[in-house]
Amino acid sequence: MAFIQMEVQDHVAVLTIDRPKALNALNSEVLSELEQAVDGLDLENVRVLVITGSGEKSFVAGADIGEMSTLTKAEGEAFGKKGNDIFRKIETLPIPVIAAVNGFALGGGNELAMSCDIRICSENAVFGQPETGLGITPGFGGTQRLARLVSPGYAKQLLYSAKNIKAPEALRIGLVNAVYPAEELMPAALKLAAAIAANAPIAVRACKQAVNQGLEQPMDEAIVLEEKRFGDCFETADQAEGMRAFLAKEKHAPYQNR
Ligand code: DAK
Prior knowledge:
four-stranded mixed beta sheet, globular, six-stranded mixed beta sheet, 16% strand, binds 4-(N,N-dimethylamino)cinnamoyl-COA, alpha/beta
């Protein structure tokens, strides 16, 4: 692939968006390759996906403004659907996804980060939805995910004002979980990914599904969803091993995703 690098080691996949000349902006080709890369993940083996951008300046500086500039209404809707479909695929991927935001996360870049389960960033990261300043709305889920992740009032401020915020403010409003010096970002992402990958994969995936689906349902239905996922775990070898080892005061054997 021309714009996506993928490396897999110890059950953790690292996907790097690599279009440095345009600060990793998302054009149709990058979006297609992103989808191809996500579709190609071996979920038997890979337990966590980390998404980052190449270079030290930018995670993703947005959708490609050059490509968007001449779109018609119908083409705009189609471009929005292409991005939305792939971001939704990332959001609903069975395994956890960590965004390691290494610089600009603007427009489609912030929207990509928000489709991940967990966001951590470097001290030089900048977040924003600059679209209204360009005469458009966000088109890859920004109006929806931002309002769900931070307060609706803060989301509206970012959307209406098109003003960017820096890493400390992103941390303060809960858009990211942690901020690191640039050189510590990927080690921190990999350390977190390794900690997740060491836990029982079926249980981790069930947590993701329960949180994501439960948030869309009334509490009475959401807790039933959790009960079902909880019950499912008792048919797994990893549950048997995890509890056996605890009771025997031993370290459990590496989890098998079974
Ligand atoms: N698209 C295309 N090229 C971009 C780009 C982008 N989003 N961002 C940066 N680049 C390119 C620049 O044009 C420049 O290219 P050359 O001139 O060297 O050929 C190169 O990357 C380096 O950028 P700068 O020279 O500008 O670098 P600076 O350090 O001076 O500034 C910056 C960095 C990130 C502050 C600046 O590049 C910037 O403001 N970039 C644009 C950020 C932005 O507005 N992003 C949001 C894009 S809008 C929808 C679907 C999707 C969307 C909306 C609707 N529908 C279907 C409804 C999504 C919209 C967006 O994401």
